[in-house]
Amino acid sequence: MNCTGGSATATACIFTNPLEVIKTRLQLQGEIQARGAAAAAAPRYKGVGDAIVKMAQQEGVLSLQKGLVPGMIYQVLYLS
Questions:
Q1: CB atoms closer than 10 angstroms to residue 57
Q2: What is the distance between the terminal CA atoms of the chain, rounded to a whole angstrom?
Q3: What is the dihedral of CA 46, 51, 52, 57, to 10 degrees?
Q4: Cβ contact 29:45 at 8 Å
Q5: 77-79-80 Cα angle (round to 5)
Q6: 9 and 75 in contact (C-beta within 8 Å)?
Q7: pLDDT at position 2
Q8: What percent of the chain stands above pLDDT 70?
């Protein structure tokens, strides 16, 4: 196993994971709206910036790193 490559991809995951979390939340919001659910009348997030601000205020800054450990493990194992 290449330790340098594994540590590089795991470190990169720290910076890209918040974008993945936001992307997923925005996608799910769109899917719920497309199904016409009553609770989805008003979108929770208006965009990427709004999602970052609202998540940080309502759930804490660390909420942007949800799923970080599994993502890092995946990146390290992907190289081996």
A1: 10
A2: 5
A3: 110
A4: yes
A5: 70
A6: yes
A7: 63
A8: 90
